[in-house]
Design goal:
single chain; mainly alpha; 20 helices
Length: 535
């Protein structure tokens, strides 16, 4: 389904901007879709779909998932994105198709297609892991557990298929792990499980890595709509082979399969994540939007003592919590930001306690939430004022020399740069923050493509929207900025934003949260028209 390509009228001068907007608009359509599909929408995932092929052949749509995997294979034999992003999805798809051969699923024509796909997938994996250009995989959730687990499964399947002539050469050349990765963390998780000790809560999202021991494992189980860790793969692993028709979790998977037509997304439901990002993005840009009380009430209800998680069965995190707080405040329903205090490390904010590393976008979003809570014209509480100052300093320290910010939750630095620049521009409040935004603007200007777009691998509407938002964070509109914005507006006017855009968001593999991306593009288009870039 494509986003409606309405013309966004310019907001009226004087009085409330955009007050005379037609009842039907792109923004109202986004709101309507969030209400109609409360679990949220994302692109289908090769990784998760491959895991269902292996773990849940009993689930409706099994043949459709196999066919979908075969059709998604790249010409070079891999699956997924460039720059190392292919490793996890290629391992998952190849292992799934090997398991399909082992079960002797499908007719002769399908098996011939699978034989070819497996051969090309194994060739691509060996090239990625042993070739001269091999590199550590990107920092995706649970990669250090998923890659060792899948390489083990590939080896087991190849051993079991010893009588299949076409696989002989691959049995003799076992897949190595990427440089710097080993089996120790996976072995540690398995030891915890074997000893009856509790597993970390965040492991629920990748429970499938522990193998058959995941079935009915203590401490985890279906919650909300029946999901384990908001993950189709984790839910299937917890259910095990041949669950009964009334088993909790089975209906969740069946609903997902019906919604997506066979393949499944990385995470579902993403209700709070989708709603808070969409509403926060639109309100920040000043897009006129009517928000039903049900949406704001749902966001408020999602906030518990520790904040809110991205999805049911996951731990609460500072990222989703801060964006929810920001969206509610912008909508006129502020909530005490003290719920974020447990994530304060004294230097920056962790996404969740015990996080390995730190996230630029999480901290930019926390700065948004806390900055939006600062009293206007009065003193802030000691902690609130201190946190805003520390966050500002920390974000300044994370900026790359060329002016951009990278992040662990998105493949494109245009996303993190727009998040940091917007937060610093609005709430940084120092000359150093203004200079930092100027450096980000200079980096964005230098990266514009000849057609007016921006993108890490190719021009995309999503990344162009982030670039536009960064340019508009500048305190002064220079001639180069105005010219770049005019080219961007011209390019964006030709683009239809739909599910076929690039997958840039980080989960176990790359994904695209459809409505969140559409909201970012809609906001950029609105800002461009509001700014009269062609005047």
């Amino acid at each position: 389904m494509s986003a409606p390509s309405y013309d966004l009228s310019r907001p009226e001068r004087g009085g409330q901007a955009g007050a005379a907007v037609a009842e039907r608009s792109p923004a109202s359509d986004l709101v309507a879709e969030m209400l109609a599909a409360p679990s949220g929408r994302s692109s289908p995932s090769v990784y998760e779909t491959g895991r269902l092929v292996s773990l849940a052949p009993w689930l409706a749509g099994h043949d459709e998932r196999i066919d979908w995997l075969l059709r998604r294979q790249r010409p070079d034999g891999a699956w997924g994105g460039p720059d190392g992003y292919a490793l996890v999805p290629t391992l998952s798809a190849t292992e799934a198709l090997l398991t399909t051969l082992r079960r002797d699923d499908g007719g002769p024509a399908t098996r011939d297609r699978i034989d070819d796909a497996v051969d090309r997938g194994l060739r691509a994996l060996h090239a990625a892991l042993t070739g001269p250009a091999s590199a550590p995989p990107p920092d995706l959730p649970a990669t250090d557990l998923i890659v060792p687990a899948l390489t083990e499964l590939v080896a087991e399947n190849l051993d079991a298929l010893r009588d299949r002539p076409g696989l002989t050469r691959w049995r003799a050349a076992r897949l190595p792990l990427p440089e710097g990765m080993d089996h120790r963390r996976l072995a540690g998780v398995r030891m915890l499980l074997a000893g009856g000790r509790p597993l970390p809560e965040k492991l629920a999202h990748a429970l499938e890595v522990v193998g058959p021991a995941a079935r009915r494992v203590a401490g985890f189980g279906p919650v909300g709509p029946g999901t384990v860790g908001a993950s189709p793969a984790a839910t299937a692993a917890w259910l095990g082979p041949e669950p009964g028709a009334e088993e909790p979790g089975r209906a969740y998977l069946e609903d997902l399969v019906r919604q997506y037509g066979g393949p499944v997304p990385s995470a579902s439901p993403i209700t709070v994540f989708e709603r808070s990002w969409v509403l926060g993005t639109l309100t920040r840009a000043g897009v006129p939007i009517g928000v039903p009380a049900a949406l704001t009430a749902g966001l408020r209800a999602a906030l518990g003592p520790a904040g809110t998680p991205t999805g049911p069965g996951l731990p609460a995190d500072a990222d989703t919590t801060s964006v929810t707080l920001y969206a509610l405040a912008r909508l006129g329903h502020p909530v005490d930001p003290m719920v974020l205090r447990p994530y304060d490390t004294g230097e920056h904010f962790c996404t969740w306690p015990g996080e390995d590393g730190a996230s630029v976008t999480t901290n930019a979003h926390v700065l948004d939430a806390l900055g939006q809570s600062l009293p206007h014209g009065g003193p802030a509480t000691p902690w609130l004022g201190s946190a805003v100052r520390r966050l500002t300093r920390w974000l300044l320290d994370q900026q790359e020399p060329d002016g951009r910010w990278p992040d662990r939750w998105h493949a494109s630095p245009y996303y993190a740069t727009s998040c940091a620049a917007a937060a610093l521009s609005e709430y940084g409040g120092t000359e150093a923050a203004r200079q930092s935004v100027d450096r980000a603007v200079a980096w964005v200007l230098a990266g514009q493509r000849a057609d007016g777009s921006w993108g890490r691998w190719a021009g995309s509407a999503e990344e162009t929207a982030y670039a536009v938002q960064t340019l508009l964070a500048a305190e002064r509109r220079s001639a180069p900025i105005a010219a770049a914005l005019a080219r961007a507006e011209s390019w964006l006017s030709t683009v239809d934003v739909d599910e076929d855009g690039p997958e840039l968001w980080h989960d176990k593999d790359l994904y695209r949260p459809t409505l969140i991306v559409q909201a970012a593009v809609l906001a950029a288009r609105w800002l461009l028209r509001s700014a009269d870039v062609d005047d």
